[in-house]
Amino acid sequence: MVPIHYHLMLSAILFAIGALGVLLRRNTIIIFMSIELMLNAVNLSFVALARQWGSMDGQLIVFFVMAVAAAEAAVGLAIILMVFRNRETVNADELNLMRW
């Protein structure tokens, strides 16, 4: 059996890669994919800890996180598509639709 700290280290690495993607990239689609990577890293740690403690609570939380991530992806991609149709760019620096 694989030790728990291997799963947690992998989760931390994936979360760090996702955080760097959000902070360093300006393409909104890549930012979106980085957020999804961060959510999956958290899901991995929930499942690993739930298995370690012999509880189903972590897996139940993962189910809800996946449902929220799916809804976020659907709404977020729709917003990105509408912004792209109006502005013809997906660069986050050039988008100022929410500014007065």
Characterise this structure:
- The structure is a single chain.
- The chain is mostly helical and 100 residues long.
- The chain has a single domain (4-89), classed as Helix Hairpins.
- 78% of the residues lie in helices and 0% in strands.
- The chain has three helices and no strands.
- It has helices spanning 4-24, 28-53, 57-87.
- The radius of gyration is 17 Å and the shape is elongated.
- The mean pLDDT is 90.
SSE pattern: HHH
Beta percentage is under 5%
Shape descriptor reads elongated
**H/I helix tally:** 3
Q: What is the CATH top level name? A: Mainly Alpha
CATH-assigned fold name: Helix Hairpins
In percent, how helical is the residue content?
over 70%
Sheet bearing the most strands, described?
none
Contiguous low-pLDDT stretches (5 residues minimum) are none
Looking at the overall shape, the CATH architecture is Orthogonal Bundle
The total number of structural domains is 1
Tell me the Rg in angstroms: 17 Å
What's the number of extended β-strand segments? 0
Gap between N and C termini, in Å? 56 Å
Provide the residue-averaged pLDDT.
90
Helix-and-strand structural type: mainly alpha
